[in-house]
Queue: 2 jobs
Job 1
Amino acid sequence: MKRFLLFLLFAFPAVASAQKLSESAVEDISAKMATQFQRRNDPALVFVTEQMSRSGSGGLEVDKTMMELKKDPAALDAALKFLYQYSDCNRQTLIANLRAMNVSSGNVFPLATYIVNKNKNEAKTLQEEKAELIRIGAIPQVTSVMVAPPASQPAVINTNALPPAANTPGTTQPAAAATTTTAPATSAAPVEDTRNWEVRSVFSITKPDELATLYGKENLELRDATGLDGNDAGKAWYVYPDTENEMQVIFNADSSKTIIFTQERSKWKSPFGIKPGDPIEKVNKVNARAFRVNGFEWTNGGVVDSWEGGAMDKKGVQILFRAVNSGDPKLYDQFTGEKKFRSDNASLKKLGVIVEKVVFRTYQ
């Protein structure tokens, strides 16, 4: 019995330490990730930052979050998870990446152990998600390690993205055969859309002139705006007005900005990846828990009342929902009037509840 108690005495601290990082490790990895983030071209941190923005883990001001990870334990855990994902959920590759970031040698293995243990149940999902992002072109297929990978894992490189090999001294390219045949006319390739669709680009601006610089004066128009409650919200600058990519920006008196989206087919990439037209089930998943919504057809009807401490709580996100299938009065009446309902109520799927409007409020 004594031996068993002694075993527990020594085992539990070991298990606990594996589930918690020391202050030194937190300081170290936070500072190193901030340094790499500032370079703006580091592939690992570009990937991590995009995933933080895509998942909403970085909040509305993801740049600020990446610079201050030690102040937000949840954001730090998310950043470490995405570094693990970038490393193909491979411990050796993760260690190589931590070393490449100049993490102190004494913190490398504790960090690797912590990251792997915390995310081991998600490893397969993370790998599948990364593969899908590469497949659809959301991220480039580049090396998954910042330095030479371990011998057991070759680097993965997108050879299709490499430029054609240039002639080297002493070599020549075969000359094209002479011909008098006229090549058939071909239609011009479609022009690539190089516009920046990242919503976070708007967060740092402070005046309308900067909007004009970003999107062109010809694509701006000052109009009346309405809030989630349907009431007058003052004047807003409409970017790409009357198009699928319409975005409204309100410069508030307290130096904050309100950014509004109402179009379902927009190209904008917003924090948390939420857009008009998304089903309420997706918002549940992003928030990582159910939330409360005001009853339809009433004051602030369809507006989120509380995120219930979820991922979007206190992040400056407001959403208005609407029911697409409201033809069944008996069913619809369960969610109308002076009441609040939970977003995970199974009957909401029958109503086809979707996002109608998304509002971001930022003080950056």
Note: The mean pLDDT is 81.
Job 2
Amino acid sequence: MKDIFCLFGFSDFRNSFSSFSSFSSFSNFSPGDRKAGDYRKTGKGWIALFLLWGGLFSFCSGWDGLYSSAFAGDDPTPEQASTGDNLSAREITLLMVSATPPYIDEAQSRGVELDLVREALALEGYRVIPRFVPSKRRNVEYSSGRYDGALTVSLNDQLEGCYSDSYITYQNVALSLRARKFSIRKIADLEGKRVVAFQTASVILEPEFTSFAKKNSQYREIAKRRDLLTLLFRDHADVVVGELNILNWLIKNGEYPDLVDVTQPLAVHRVFRPSVKYAVFTDPVLCQAFNRGIAVLHRSGGYDKTFRTYGILGYDLDVLTNGG
């Protein structure tokens, strides 16, 4: 329809142009007839004719281009996609265990570990989309192949993919009420005690603890770390096993029932080796990019600065208190 309109439109325009040229040509006027009004009328006619021609030409030859430019939206061109200008093509989704502040704080979408990972991958041009899951679901979700990687992984998890260099170390400890005066210097000293731990502790901690967990009928693993401390403060458990900084954060920031006295000092028993953590990626290229980014943060001092921002505790504490 548009083609037919343009065909007849240009034909009519040509005829109008010829007629107007014959009528308005100065050669058709004698010198005495060339009044000022005639010149103005003739000039206006030419202007109108050319405006009409310009509109017709724009419609027939340039409308498609104008339309596509104005309404095509924000979809990137192939050139943009290939050069990385398309930000969505550089987004990656990483699985991480929820509710482990100060390392990963789902409510705030931040934390020392999450910040480090974001900063490292941003240096390589990637944007991290967090996918928070319970600890027991992380490995299952990663194995589904729907995600680009997973954080806070141990070698014992034995996941397929490219393991990064170690980028953070967790400090798992055993805690007890100081008033109980337990002497706990090694894992074997946990025998006969009511021990509660975070989910998957019996898998990712050392084999001696795995053996203890299987044999001890009083051993339990609980999803919410705050509940671990509630049991301890209420004397419903003798020992809590967990990460030092996570437990310290929960003592100071967790919400507890009124009858729970969180000011009771806790003895810190260092019976576990530091737990080195890795990220695992489905794509080796992404894995290598992450390693480069972490290395840059170490060299620049950004790594240590992030740790200081969150007040991460050292591993040499003997007592945790709500005021300490």
Note: Residues 36-71 form the longest helix (36 residues).
